[in-house]
Amino acid sequence: MLQLGEFMKPNLQSLVRVGGATLALTIGLAPSATAQFEKEHSVVDLADGVFAILWENMTSFPVEGNHLVIINATGVVVVDANRTPSLAEEVIAIIRERTSLPVRYVINTHWHADHVQGNAVYRRTFPDVAIVGHPETAAGIDTVLRPYVTEVDDDLARMRGVLASDTLSDERRPRVEAQVTNLEREATLYEVVEFVAPTALVTDSLRLDGSRTIDVLHLGHGNTPGDLVVYLPAEGIVAVGDLVTRPYPLLGWDAPASWSRVLDNVLAREPRMVVPGHGEVLRTTEYAELFRDLFKSLSEQVAEGVAARRSLEDLQSDIDLDRFWREFAGDDDQLFRAFGAQFQPVAVRRAYLELQP
Ligand SMILES: [Zn+2]
Fold this sequence. Notes:
By secondary structure, this protein is of the alpha/beta class. It contains ten helices and 14 strands.
């Protein structure tokens, strides 16, 4: 099964499906409530007292963002806080196996559900913890995530109605059943999510000093308007949230031109290790450069078109990003076509809007 993610909204309903691939839901096999929220992870040591916790499979439910964990002289710094509260508890258990120091800072790289919904777990477990984020991250939690809980309930009621109607065709029924199952899982999750927005706000940069230097940097609008990266200059480690994701980009490309400049700024620091928002740690900068080059090529092509007064419709057929899609898709032709058919139109539109004079 292949799915490409649109994570501007936190729900899995908005995942874009590839070609004729079907949702990986086994109708009739109802997993228990807790089994729905299990996910495999790995722990990777990056430097003395610095490690990453990585969640497998970027798009399988529940979608969970990676973590960088830094053990400092008097406390622990954790980058990103899960989508599922019980998995945030798992992360805290991993940290406690390694240190008895409390978590002093949780840094939200951006507002998407899979990076912030465990904030409340940290607040409960470590009452003195500072939740660090950009003001746009606090705004995203308050204006998108909080109302989403009600939207899930409304959508679930509506889709259950569709499922019960006599007019539903046999062809459409399995899709509606899958949607209802997805929404039921979402609703179960949101019964236990409590939203806590960052209160330690960073609009430019924040340096956390201790036994090592930790820089929290807002380098501009990339994946979201309030992206933060966490940079350890001595160790050459940078955690970039969903500015870089593996094995391929996620939709939500608000500002491709700005995004390419943000990645230029990250790459100028010549990091030795990049912790992406999803997927394995990068030990070279090649993959991050591919992201940067994709956004650069996209925005340059669109800028040329805008200067030549081409319409958005014309641009949709002008733009050629095939060499990037081939890099991400490898031999998988279905995935390659899906990038062109599903990612590209969204990406071109976003760049077109961004680059209007
Ligand atoms: Zn994410």
